[in-house]
Amino acid sequence: MDSNGCISCHGAELTGGAGAPSLIDTGLKPEEISKIAVKGQGGMPAGMFKGTDEELKTLAEFVSGLSTK
């Protein structure tokens, strides 16, 4: 989630920016987030995620759990 990855579009607080939505309270399951990270959706192009399968799983679980509550 460095400045060349998620943060560059979704912002340092992951609340959205540069046309990208917030990653907080997405309501998405980890499997859905994994699919978006690999295949893209909306303004997010496919192929943005460059990590391993294990890193993808960790990222998806992390984003899925982000909440303001």
From TrEMBL:
Instruction: Please tell me whether the keyword Zinc is annotated for this protein.
Output: no
* PROSITE patterns attached to this UniProt entry: CYTC
Q: Which UniProt keywords apply?
A: Electron transport, Heme, Iron, Metal-binding, Transport
GO MF annotations in UniProt: electron transfer activity; heme binding; metal ion binding
Per its UniProt record, what InterPro entries does this chain match? Cyt_c-like_dom, Cyt_c-like_dom_sf, Cytochrome_c550/c551-like
User: What Gene3D superfamilies has UniProt attached to this entry?
Assistant: Cytochrome c-like domain (1.10.760.10)
Question: In this protein, which residues make up the domain named Cytochrome c?
Answer: 1-67
Annotated protein name in UniProt: Cytochrome c
Q: In which organism is this protein found?
A: Peribacillus frigoritolerans
